[in-house]
Amino acid sequence: MNPQEEKVKIITEEFIENDEDADVGRQKTSRVQRRKRKKQLPTAGPDEMVSEKSHLGDQQEPGHEDPNADARPLSMPTRRGPRSLPPIPSASRTGFAEFSMRERMREKLQAARSKAESALLQEIPTPRPRRLRSPSEKELETEFGTEPGGKIQTTQQEDDSQSYSRVKFRDSVRKIKSKTPVPPGFPSAEEAYNFFTFNFDPEPEESEEKPKAKNRDGANQEEGEGEEEEAPVPEGIDKTDEEVLLDDKDAVDFLLGLDRGAEDIVAVRPADYESVHIRLQKEKELLFIPSRRTVPTYKKLPENVQPRFLEDEGLYIGARLEVPRTNQNIMENRLLMQEPGRRWFGDDGRILALPNPIKPFPSRPLVLTQEQDIKAELETLYKKLQALRNAVQVSLNPAKTPKSLDTTRRAINEYKSEIRQTRKLRDIEQEKDRTLLKTIIKVWKEMKSLREFQRFTNTPLKLVLRKEKVDQKADEEAYEAEIQAEISELLEEHREEYEQRMDEYRSAHQQWKAWKKAQRTKKKKKKQGVEEHPDDEMEEPYPEEDPVKPVPPEPTNQAVIEQEVRERAAQSRRRPGEPMLVPELSLAGSVTPNDQCPRVEVLRREDVKRRSVYLKVLFNDKEVSRTNSRPLGADFRVHFGQIFNLQIVNWPESLTLQVYETVGHSGTTLLAEVFLPIPETTVVTGRAPLEEVEFSSNQHVTLDHEGVGSGVPFSFEADGSNQLTLMTSGKVSNSVSWAIGENGIPLIPPLSQQNIGFRSALKRADAISSIGTSGLTDMKKLAKWAAESKLDPNDPNNAPLMQLILVATSGESYVPDFFRLEQLQQEFNFVSDEELNRSKRFRLLRLRSQEVPEFRNYKQIPVYDREIMEKVFQDYEKRLRDRNVIETKDHIDTHRAIVAKYLQQVRESVINRFLIAKHHFLLADLIVEEEVPNISILGLRLFKLAEQKRPLRPRRKGRKKVTVQNLSDGDIKLLVNIIRAYDIPVRKPITSKFQQPPRSSRTFSEKQAASPTTHSPTHSADYPLSQVLVRPFVEVSFQRTICHTTTADGPNPSWNEELELPFRAPNGDYSTTSLQSVKDDVFINIFDEVLYDVLEDDRERASGIHTRIERHWLGCVKIPFSTIYFQAKIDGTFKIDTPPVLLGYSKERSVVAERGFDPVRSLSEGSYITLFITMEPQLVPGESVREKTSDMLKKFDSQEDEKLLQATEKFQAECALKFPNRQCLTTVIDISGKTVFITRYLKPLNPPQELLNAYPNNPQATAELVARYVSLIPFLPDTVSFAGICDLWSTSDQFLDLLAGDEEEHAVLLCNYFLSLGKKAWLMMGNAIPEGPTAYVLTREQSHYLIWNPCSGHFYGQFDTFCPLKSVGCLIGPDNIWFNIQRHDSPLRINFDITKPKLWKSFFSRSLPYPGLSSVQPEELIYQRTDKAAAAELQDRIEKILKEKIMDWRPRHLTRWNRYCTSTLRHFLPLLERSQGEDVEDDHRAELLKQLGDYRFSGFPLHMPYSELKPLIEAVYSTGVHNIDVPNVEFALAVYIHPYPKNVLSVWIYVASLIRNR
Amino acid sequence: MGPWSAVLLYTQHGEQCLAHTSVGLLLPCTFHHVLRRHLGPLLVLGPGAAWKLLSGVREGQTQVDTPQVGDMAYWSHPIDLHFATKGLQGWPRLHLQVWSQDSFGRCQLAGYGFCHVPSSPGTHQLDCPTWRPLGSWREQLARAFVGGGPQLLHGDAIYSGADRYRLHTAAGGTVHLELGLLLRHFDRYGVEC
């Protein structure tokens, strides 16, 4: 193409000079040019200028074609298509085109004239005479590629010449229509007209093809040639008469059309009609009716090729589908005609076809299956044998096969060997067949004799032997022929063998002869050379032994062979003439009815009726389902007909059926186990055949009736001879297959997991035996084996193997073992996946949206990667890395580290399980709806108007609850109202007695005594009562923020102050879950403010005061934030946790008691504080999570009985109806997420022996010690560890292993210990302060009840007012649950006698008796002794760390440690542990004073269970010991850890500050 | 028309942040012939394998709106998605299913629709026409009285036209969407938006 174009250019360049010519062209054709351009719209060429000059366009013949080709589409839209040559539209070009067109028309006219008479339309466009450059012409034609199509088109048009004008008209209209919306600027009507007229221009080309009519037209055109160049407008006039007419009409129509617009586009025309005759005629040209006659084979095969029959060559060929012969013929004829390529025909000259997919599958009585199989096999073998023999015959025939002799010989040899093998196989099969028939008959005879002997029939089985008469003669002939064939084959074989042996013999003989000769010559030589070589003689004979003279092989004896063959035939084959026996089994026999049977038989039958059988299905040794129990039929058949769908999660390893037999109502016995193979992946539902698996049991059964029993010898014969021993045996017919999913995909486990070698081993066991398992992976070997074993490549059974080998051995051909979903994805990727994953920003975004804890509330992720620090991920990556690594750095104790890790994992798994539920919001979570005021509220409001504005005793009003969504830092405040305290320890004046006389100054107390007026006037009142003042104040610390009250006076101070502490959620995440997991505690510390006069000089006392304030820690109350969060408010009086020893302080309870001030309070020990804590604004506690998950919880699997679960639900509903506020617990969730009935947790469990030995004679002391042990296990609320998801109950051994748990676990363990101590103990569910809903333990002593707080180890009497338990919901014993249905629920006011049904509603009652539930607890608890050395080491480390911490907290001061004091304290701590912190104070003080007399000493021991280091540090920090900033202060710190069994550690920390008295 | 439009982040991307698409989405829907409450569209965004969801939820459901004035249902449902992509294939698109709930609380299909997320950044007003399969006259009759009616078996017929010629459908109103998109780094890979 390009070269031509270039040529055009070159030529035109030559003509650039001839401007005059161009001028003419320009004038003439400016219009034409325009419309030309319009016409050739899509291909407007660039070289206008060029073409303008090309006048003498003879060389430009290629250019000619363009307008020509272009013009055609006007009438023949089919020819529009991509043109390779860009048309060159230009004015002069057009002229030129017209000119050339005319020329061509002329040519064509001439051609047409010559052929007009013959009117053979097809011939019109025959090669046009070309004047120039025919080769390029040709090229062009091919390039256009439209010539033939065009011809057909034109001929067709001519055919329906009637409609021609119409078509043309239509086309032009269409053309115009498409042109009407031309861009503005063109006179559309004129242009259209031009267009229209121009349209006609190329038309003559076609019209002239109408031979007669176009004669004149052509002439006119010739004439008009010259004119046209001057005046293109009158072009249209130069038409034939008819066409002018048409033209006018067209033009008018067209103009009208322009005016009218779109209506003319839709033309109403009569329907086109073609007469049937014409249509048929046309169709005849197009249609082809293949004949039905048989096609001769030679036509179907390539020339000089003989048909080849694969079957004759012994290859497997599947049975063809039956197709009627005529159909086949039609098909063949059609194929021959239509596609002469002959690819449709196989070597045998038949149409290629797949084998018949229908497999003959017998459906008939079961007994005969085997025999039938053999028969079928036999038949195929016969066939094969026949085919092979034929093949040999064929190939042996020399006339037919002029192939290379070598190959034929080899082929023949192969055939022969195959024949031999096949014959052997056939013989074996035949023998089998015969023996089978014999046995069938024998068994039937036995049965018959037995039936006769018994005189009754049990089964309807009946065997009929059908004899098939055979034509004796034909049969004999066939038999004989068969034998003869065999004999001849054998003979031939033998002959070959003989010949071979003969050859061997001959060569051997020759050798022998040669040797003989040699011997002889040697002997001669020897005789000559004996004298010379005497020594040689000795050696000579040995090396060559005398070759034995070969014996010629015996020729084969035909008679002997014949004899053999006949013998064999007689043995294994049906004798000629013998009728063929076809056994047929039917169930048509009659069973003897019961009343005709003897008694024993009736008994037997009844026994059979009582028996039923069922199957258990075991998958991977676990029972997955079982069938219904079905009675055994009279014919010992059981039909189950059940399908079990197993959805499996684990890899299938075994599938077992267990056959169970049930006799009457007694127990079941396992008869046998049947192992089923796991189906192959190709076996899917619907395709799996029924298989029979036999089983038998070795059980011995002796029956008292006629039944045979099992394992018992018996005899069929009347005389008892011929004893038989039958075992219970049977068959299970089953089918195992993979299911098919909804969309037709088999639900097969992914192949990647399978051991491929193993699978293929199953498939091709024979291959393994020959090449070994390793060969299966080595494809070459496999291929070799396949070649050697002459695997039939056509056999569909071998298809997968052949495919595999083909792929494997072809080498380069790469078969991907994957399927790409989005092909070309990789090619279009901007970046690789790695790069995408490397982006820190994306990672951060994703982690945040996944709510990974570290990034849960990460705000404002930077826009650029570079702004994201690498260390953002450090924590997260570290956690991921350390998930399985247990680091001991944070946890000093390895065991705790393991536990912490485990807890973390449990937590993660639980959280993941609830992830969906967490994101499921209830309406209340999102929408706060204000209550619409109604009349009653309005009334109340009115009532309130009359209320006092400032009541004397204000009451707390309920506040609006706030959802947590829009909160941020600083929005939430913790409000702590400190109201008053009772019984604060007071300073002891007595200390001074023990003190050494002061040297330089007096102690403060003495000073105070001396000058009481300095501080408070009340002192004077107290002092006479020998009470020293205490000036307590309360300091609340929360999240390291500290607030304190003013200082009050006296042991019973009243502050009534509100403290406000800001609350910050971790990571600024104020979501419910985050708030629930806040672990911080609120410490409420009570201090004594002590003022020291530091005035050195008494003289200055008058002029100034110089005192120093010191604060002494008196005690603390610790309330976890989670409690506040869940309770919304905490209101009550709490016991202050005072240290067992508080140096310098004592409780002056004697004074109070003497006064008889408050007898109830005086009973109690310790100090109390009244508090009110709440949060501002009030948050909606996340309890809804639990409610939401309750649906989820139901889905948790439970191993409880369904009835029990229903009963629990009912019980709970009933209780909730009566007392909605009382806690009622029946089922709980264990640590694996299963629902468990609560009483299963209670069971006597042995406490550590060590504790029992401590006080062998004092049960109360033992009980207290046990309670203390339990309380030493650290407390970890479930809400913290499981973030408000649910309450998981762990069993006691899990609890002891975890060494962390909440109230329930503590209570369960304590209750279990008490039970084992022989106490009557119950788990008590109720509400307490500050814990809220909690679990306590109730024990019954001789006359009273004791309430134990399991977390603190304290116990209270039933009537103790300071008991933190405020209400009792239910009691749980090891075997029952009692719900409190009394009017009151305070332990003070209720009766604990659970035997009274009016007071306690029990779960198990007479209507629902206790079913004897087994416990989930272990049999007994095993306690390991804690490693003392490890404890000592831990003790040292804690001490060191705490000392460092205290130094850190005092950054501006020097911290000195008093070693002497420390060692004293260290000695003292074990004593405290031994006495559990009681009654040692005085001795201790005395001792301390003795040793550290010249120090002012303030300190106290702290006691805690050990969980981790952080709480210890917090506790020490909260006492504020480090806050003393007296310049010469010294500190002492001692740590003692007392190890209890099972790694329970009791930690004592003694902190003291010492100030040297000067 | 729309009470508000949420402009939220919705992103896609190439090497680094290739693109941020911010989608604010407002979904009022016009129904001219159904006087029922409208369950909001079930929204499914289906980008191809090259697209990685960084944050946001891929599918969701709006609330049920009861048109009180006229038959325009307003959902004002925000869509906030953030994608990163390594290629252009599988540009995200929105599949919508509009359901209507009658006074008995029965939900039935009102229309399927789908539209591509525009490829240029900025705020876009999209109209997504929806349709629903019509079924036989029996089914139509049943639908008029008892609800229900034919639904697509597989969602892919919504956007792939291969099998649609078999369907007889009825128009199901138009869902108006207002999407705000932020693209990022697309120019780096020669993608002009």
From TrEMBL, chain B:
<keyword id="KW-0206">Cytoskeleton</keyword>
<dbReference type="InterPro" id="IPR010796">
    <property type="entry name" value="C2_B9-type_dom"/>
</dbReference>
<keyword id="KW-0963">Cytoplasm</keyword>
<dbReference type="GO" id="GO:0036038">
    <property type="term" value="C:MKS complex"/>
</dbReference>
<dbReference type="Pfam" id="PF07162">
    <property type="entry name" value="B9-C2"/>
</dbReference>
<dbReference type="GO" id="GO:0060271">
    <property type="term" value="P:cilium assembly"/>
</dbReference>
<keyword id="KW-0966">Cell projection</keyword>
<protein>
    <recommendedName>
        <fullName>B9 domain-containing protein 2</fullName>
    </recommendedName>
</protein>
<comment type="similarity">
    <text>Belongs to the B9D family.</text>
</comment>
<keyword id="KW-0970">Cilium biogenesis/degradation</keyword>
<comment type="function">
    <text>Component of the tectonic-like complex, a complex localized at the transition zone of primary cilia and acting as a barrier that prevents diffusion of transmembrane proteins between the cilia and plasma membranes.</text>
</comment>
